[in-house]
Design a protein that fits this description.
With 196 residues, the chain is mainly alpha-helical. The protein has seven helices and no strands.
């Protein structure tokens, strides 16, 4: 049951994270192509499916609020733009991390569940040996072999979950770092554009 559940999570995360790096690269190329700030709708149309879109939207909305609220041509507080973008990035990271703790739990618990089943099966085999009164390996071997299957089942659930967890965690960390760098790049561009 844990194996089926972990594979469902693995596939869900694969669909969620597949292509995110390529889409983020396309987004950054579109953003860096111009000298000004592109319209969020144009960026979203050019590169949907990347969390950088949400980060950009947050920064752009805060910039627009500062410019519209004062009627001036200069934002009041570039730090506030940076904060809004980092809040949006943190929300995106939380969304990407959803289900990761379940994968980690399955990876760490499954071998112990399999070991518990093995111990239970071996105890049952020895109890059957005592009831039969025959003290031979031939009498106890089938029960022990069946018990060892639970260890294999526990490992079969744990190993893919652990591999997927490590792989996806690395992808999420890389995306989070990319969002942080993009927020800094956006704020630097705002300060350059509105410095005069």
């Amino acid at each position: 049951m844990l194996s089926v559940f972990s594979w469902a999570l693995i596939l869900q995360k694969w669909f969620q994270l597949s292509g995110i790096d390529r889409k983020s690269t396309r987004f950054l190329q579109t953003f860096r192509a111009g000298t000004g700030l592109p319209n969020p709708k144009a960026l979203r149309a050019a590169s949907s499916g990347t969390p950088l879109v949400s980060v950009y939207d947050a920064g752009y909305a805060e910039l627009a609020a500062q410019l519209n609220g004062t009627g001036s041509q200069k934002p009041k507080n570039a730090n506030a733009i940076d904060v809004e973008m980092h809040v949006a990035a943190a929300d995106e990271v939380r969304r990407l991390e959803r289900g990761m703790s379940t994968l980690a739990t399955i990876a760490s618990v499954s071998p112990f569940i399999g070991l518990f089943g093995t111990v239970w099966g071996v105890m049952d085999a020895f109890i059957g040996l005592g009831d039969a009164g025959a003290a031979s390996l031939r009498a106890v071997a089938p029960g022990i072999a069946e018990a060892l299957v639970t260890t294999a089942a526990g490992l079969a659930a744990a190993i893919p979950a652990l591999i997927a967890y490590n792989h996806y965690l690395q992808a999420i960390r890389a995306t989070a770092q990319r969002m942080d760098h993009f927020a800094a790049e956006f704020v630097a561009r705002v300060e350059t554009l509105y410095s005069s």
